[in-house]
Amino acid sequence: MPKFQFLSQWLAATLIGFTLLGCTPQSTPDITVSDGYVRATFPMAKTAAVYFTIHNASGVDVRLARVSVDSAVASDAQMHTSEMQNDMMQMRQIKEGITINAHDIVEFMPGGYHVMLIGLANGLEAGEDVELTLHLEQHEPIVLILPVKSSKGEGNHHH
């Protein structure tokens, strides 16, 4: 019986090792996200803004293709940018994705790139958390748990 037990343990360890090897990203870029938060809204708001910083510590460019949010929070999540047009600040949806160059950062912040949560199920209050997923090309999705923070001292940024 000990011989059978040894063989079954060896086989299990070997299979686990091969499984882990198959799941280990061999050339996955080192992507991290920091300073993320969702701006709190009023109770009947239908949109909310999301901000964060993406760090690409790898030697290759990475494309953020899209973002998504749980449908219990909002019906859609879209990447947007703010641009000056005809002396007015305009918001534009970014459908083509955003490239994060090798060894660089991209900031999603007020007045620049940001994510809009559209069709909120409920207003978002400070102290809550929102799960946002970043979908990168050639990379596993990154799931963020972002705190909702008060927008005191900042102008309302809802479109």
From TrEMBL:
Query: Highest taxon of the source?
Result: Bacteria
Q: Which Pfam families match?
A: PCuAC
Record's InterPro entries? Answer: LpqE-like, Lxx211020-like, PCuAC_sf
User: What PROSITE patterns does this protein map onto?
Assistant: PROKAR_LIPOPROTEIN
UniProt xrefs under PANTHER family: BLR7088 PROTEIN (PTHR36302), COPPER CHAPERONE PCU(A)C (PTHR36302:SF1)
List the protein's name.
Copper chaperone PCu(A)C
